[in-house]
TrEMBL record:
One of the protein's GO biological processes: Mo-molybdopterin cofactor biosynthetic process
The reaction(s) this protein catalyses: adenylyl-molybdopterin + molybdate = Mo-molybdopterin + AMP + H(+)
Organism field: Slackia equolifaciens
Protein name: Molybdopterin molybdenumtransferase
InterPro entries in the record: MoaB/Mog-like_dom_sf, MoaB/Mog_dom, MoeA-like, MoeA_C_domain_IV, MoeA_C_domain_IV_sf, MoeA_linker/N, MoeA_linker/N_sf
One Gene Ontology CC term in the entry: cytoplasm
Required cofactor(s): Mg(2+)
Enzyme class name: transferase
PANTHER family reported for this sequence: GEPHYRIN, MOLYBDOPTERIN BIOSYNTHESIS PROTEIN
A Pfam match: MoCF_biosynth
Role of this protein: Catalyzes the insertion of molybdate into adenylated molybdopterin with the concomitant release of AMP.
Keywords in alphabetical order: Magnesium, Metal-binding, Molybdenum, Molybdenum cofactor biosynthesis, Transferase
Length: 439
């Protein structure tokens, strides 16, 4: 780690080398298996939705012109000529001066061009109905093909399929679709002191945090994690595990064994099997992170400290994994906020700092008044902002989560994190910053 890359290089180098891999692998899945997959080609509807004019209310189908000028004091009196049965095309039509009873989802009969809500009508018991509020053509109904027109593209290639997309496809009778094939990611934890999370540690042992955490992070990206047994601090054991993982998966994540210690074997293994693209990133925490090209597949060595491993996954691995899955770049959501207190940082190295959102501080008036920061001040991201507001339009404030290095519990109390630039000495109270959200 004599020469380190900066965070942007650590992200861009694997993107340029591997960003196009896996993008052309496709398979056909049923709707039941489509959730979360990335659509491989456009879907065009062969039929319209809905296939007929339908009511969106319980009430009476009418000709709108027959209701013009009516009111509670002077209702329009229409003759009831029938009732629309659900799932059956009406066997009668509405002519001038008539109406038909209809339920939500029923087919609007020929001649009718609106539906009056049930609450705005009164049946008199003599075969007539009083309409007490006027409607315009199209009120309380949707017309044939309003939702989808035949031949119209419904979903475009590259879309991540969500539950409402599946509903749309089902409405058109589309029961399967072509999606990009799963990207498989090997997750390997190393360390003599590590045991599986379901075992009780003995002596100086510790439960594995990284493997379940990274597997969940991989799954959240739409890829398929493959967990391998914990590897001891032995060179040959790690070499064998990585070789097997490269045969079975599209990407390899090794956590632990990435620093410059005598028993840190990850760099040696990746160098023997392929080309080490970098080893060391000018960031805290996460400096030992490495990336290699092995059989034209990406392999990452992540720090053993869970906090550092998670930050580096989010910043370096996630963008590449999203690209490989066909979803483009994935930077996560960002929210602007004003720092409640200053955060010192080491000059010459960028730093991740976990933060949580809080209510307006006692010094809010001072901050808003500009004594702590200028209205267009630059945040930790180096970008200018006119303000920092939450979704309700109120000014958002964030405070750092103070914790010792490596404690994963610190992230449970955080809403996100900021990145303090490499060439700054920290962030000051009142400064506007970009908070990268965890969820």
């Amino acid at each position: 780690m004599l020469t380190v890359v900066d965070l942007e290089q650590a992200r861009s180098i694997p993107l340029e080398r591997f960003g196009g891999s896996c993008a052309n692998r496709k398979r056909v899945v049923s709707l039941d298996g489509a959730l979360g997959k990335v659509l491989a080609r456009d879907i065009v509807s062969e039929e319209g939705v809905p296939p007929f004019d339908r009511s969106t209310m319980d009430g009476f189908a009418v000709r709108a012109a027959d209701t013009f000028g009516c009111s509670e004091a002077l209702p329009a009196i229409l003759t009831l000529v029938g009732e629309v049965e659900m799932g059956v095309a009406p066997d009668a039509a509405c002519s001038s001066g008539t109406c038909m009873r209809i339920l939500t989802g029923g087919q609007v009969p020929q001649g009718a061009d609106a539906v009056v809500m049930l609450e705005q009508c009164e049946e008199y018991g003599d075969g007539t109905v009083g309409i007490m509020r006027a409607v315009a053509p199209g009120d309380n109904m949707v017309f044939k093909n309003d939702d989808v027109k035949p031949g119209e593209p419904v979903l475009r290639a590259g879309v991540g399929i969500a539950p409402h997309h599946i509903g749309s496809l089902a409405s058109m009778g589309i029961t399967e679709c072509e999606v990009l094939d799963d990207v498989s990611v090997a997750v390997i934890s190393t360390g003599d002191e590590i045991v599986d999370e379901f075992r009780k540690p003995v002596g100086a042992q510790m439960r594995d945090v990284n493997a379940p955490m990274l597997a969940a992070a991989v799954r959240a990206c739409g890829a398929r994690p493959v967990r391998y047994p914990i590897v001891p601090d032995e060179y040959d054991a790690l070499l064998s595990a990585v070789r097997r993982a490269l045969e079975e998966c599209d990407m390899v994540l090794v956590s632990g064994g990435s620093s410059a210690g005598q028993r840190d074997n990850t760099a040696r293994v990746l160098s023997e099997l392929g080309e080490l693209l970098y080893h060391g990133v000018a960031i805290k925490p996460g400096k030992p992170t490495m990336c290699a090209a092995v059989r034209e597949k990406p392999a990452f060595g992540l720090p053993g400290h869970p906090v550092a491993a998670y930050f580096m996954f989010l910043e370096v691995v996630r963008p590449l994994l999203a690209r490989m899955c066909g979803a483009g770049d994935a930077g996560g959501r960002v929210r602007r906020a004003t720092l409640r207190e200053g955060i010192p940082s080491n000059h010459g190295r960028a730093e991740f700092v976990a933060v949580r959102f809080e209510g307006e501080p006692d010094c809010a008036s001072r901050l808003k008044g500009g004594q702590g920061a200028e209205p267009h001040s630059e945040g930790a991201s180096g970008k200018a902002s006119r303000g920092a507001f939450d979704e309700d339009g109120r000014e958002a404030f964030a405070s750092p989560v103070r914790s010792k290095s490596g404690l994963i519990s610190s992230l449970a109390a955080a809403d996100g994190y900021i990145v303090i630039g490499r060439n700054t000495e920290g962030a000051s109270a009142g400064q506007r910053v970009d908070v990268r959200l965890f969820s």
